[in-house]
Automatic annotation (TrEMBL):
The name this protein goes by in its record: ATP-binding cassette domain-containing protein
SUPFAM superfamilies (alphabetical): MOP-like, P-loop containing nucleoside triphosphate hydrolases
InterPro entries reported in the protein's UniProt record: AAA+_ATPase, ABC_SmlMolc_Importer, ABC_transporter-like_ATP-bd, ABC_transporter-like_CS, Mo/tungstate-bd_C_term_dom, Mop_domain, P-loop_NTPase, Transp-assoc_OB_typ1
Keywords, comma-separated and alphabetical: ATP-binding, Molybdenum, Nucleotide-binding, Transport
Keyword Nucleotide-binding on entry: yes
PANTHER family (alphabetical): SPERMIDINE/PUTRESCINE IMPORT ATP-BINDING PROTEIN POTA, SPERMIDINE_PUTRESCINE IMPORT ATP-BINDING PROTEIN POTA
Organism: Pseudonocardia acidicola
Domain of life: Bacteria
Domain Mop span(s) in chain numbering: 283-354
Chain segments annotated as coiled-coil in the UniProt record: none
């Protein structure tokens, strides 16, 4: 499908098999919300088609565009957006009632769904009498009540507090898996993708730059954004016999070629925990040595993350690289933001993979 707006074009092919969950990741402005708008019927693409199950709900060439409320697509967004004047039962029964299901039957099914999402006791309460987490559970039941052929999950956990998020994540997994629900999940969370999704698609600038099984994409990222949300460091360059060579000529030694032939675009990936940090250039070692300027010091529980920036006149691929070290190591370095440091990584810790599109 293709949809153009001033300064932006969404050009995406996406498929979710019956009962499969596909996570869509990408930075702000990548086109994730636009994609959901097209799938839901709120936006009309300029070209292409959308099919839900066996039903074509959008076909630009044929002039087909099924209205949003008739295409069998459910939505669970960041905010619950429940009808404030209706009880939980009334909210969940609304979709089936709109489809012509008799009131008693719709309310009976609604109470069953509320029990499934563990809020049966709240059936007769209105949204103002519920917590945010409780409202989101009711919203999930409401989205599932009409039996949608496709469920759209638009960062459904983003607005929840840290106490409610794990329980809601587990509930989503149970409801989606047990119901064999086909879903498209938009998220910025690697954990949400790992727990909920079978496959991942990564968007940048309105186009797919990575796709594959969730664990494969998040453990072997091929774009800077994916590496960042997966908590990994990434260095771009060109594959060579010994690993990867950056645009400024630095050789990064690593293991495997990840499908990248010599001369092709590739990335070197490694975890921040594999990085040793020195205040002076280390000598006589076959390890990878990356000169950086310390940009930030970020306490993270038992470790401290040192965030790198480029040296004056140095390559910009250094920006954002991270090293996780102990508080004692930070004290030994005596470094403050702006100081020159050297990140050192063993070749055995570096994976070389083909770059994303």
């Amino acid at each position: 499908m293709t949809l153009s707006r001033p300064g932006f074009t969404l050009d995406v092919e996406l498929a979710a098999e019956p009962g499969e969950v596909v996570a869509v990741l990408g930075p702000n402005g990548a086109g994730k919300s636009t994609l959901l708008g097209v799938l839901s019927g709120l936006l009309r693409p300029d070209a292409g088609h959308v099919r839900v199950g066996d039903t074509v709900v959008t076909d630009v060439a044929a002039g087909v565009h099924v209205a949003a409320h008739r295409r069998g697509v459910g939505l669970l967004a960041q905010q619950a957006l429940l009808f404030p004047h209706l009880t939980a039962v009334g909210n969940v029964a609304f979709g089936p009632r709109a489809m012509g299901v008799p009131r008693r039957e719709a309310e009976r099914a609604a109470r069953d769904l509320l029990a499934d999402v563990d809020v049966a006791a709240l059936a007769d309460r209105r949204p103002a009498q519920m917590s945010g987490g409780q409202q989101q559970r009711v919203a999930l039941a409401r989205a599932l009540a009409p039996g949608p052929g496709l469920l759209l999950l638009d960062e459904p956990l983003a607005a929840l507090d840290v106490d409610a998020t794990p329980a809601m994540r587990s509930l989503l997994r149970r409801m989606i898996r047990d119901g064999k629900q086909t879903a498209v999940l938009v998220t910025h969370s690697a954990l949400d993708a790992l727990v909920l999704a079978d496959r991942v698609v990564v968007l940048t600038g309105g186009r797919v730059v990575e796709r594959g099984l969730t664990r494969d994409v998040l453990t072997r990222p091929r774009s800077p954004f994916t590496a960042r949300i997966a908590g990994l460091d990434l260095v771009p360059g060109t594959a060579c016999e010994d690993g990867l060579r950056t645009a400024d000529g630095l050789l990064v030694a690593g293991r495997g070629n990840g499908g990248a032939a010599p001369g092709e675009r590739a990335v070197a990936v490694f975890p921040p925990s594999a990085v040793a940090v020195y205040a002076k250039p280390p000598q006589g070692s076959p390890r990878n040595v990356l000169p950086v300027r310390l940009a930030a010091i970020e306490p993270r529980g038992d470790v401290v993350r040192l965030r790198a920036g480029a040296m004056d006149g140095g390559p910009d691929w250094v920006d954002g690289l991270a090293a996780d070290v102990t508080p004692a190591a930070v004290a030994d370095l005596g470094a403050e933001p702006g100081a020159a440091l050297w990140f050192v990584v063993k070749a055995t810790e570096v994976g070389i993979h083909a770059a994303g599109g």
